[in-house]
Amino acid sequence: MAINRCSVWFAAAVLLLTPRLTLAHHSLSIYHEDRNFTLTGTATEFVFGNPHAVLRFDVRDANGIVESWSAETSGVRRLETAGWSKETIKPGDQVTLIGRRIKDGSKKMFMEKIVVNGKEYERGRR
Length: 126
Prior knowledge:
Blueprint (H helix, E strand, L loop, with lengths): L1 H21 L8 E17 L6 E7 L5 E7 L3 H6 L12 E9 L5 E9 L2 E4 L4
Parallel strand pairs: 3-5
Antiparallel strand pairs: 1-2, 1-4, 2-3, 4-5, 5-6
């Protein structure tokens, strides 16, 4: 009887804690908080997925050298409520991104807004 009672309490605890664990998420503290910046380039790949959508794009620097960048943004559900779809960005589209650069100096950013072929999209809110 004691084993069954312990099993029930354990199962209840797991069920109650599981939703909290699935909501765990990394912080955006790896990105500069106070410095939005803008990049313009050409989309090469758009992954419309979870936990974050990712855009890969090429940017020409001041010397004409092409740099490959990546930008992550919200997940599918939030993007869909803001008007996005998997067809929003296609390879070859001209994109202007506004967001925060990663602190380690690599060619990565967190995208807050994007203009795709002249149409503006935001990442959506909670």
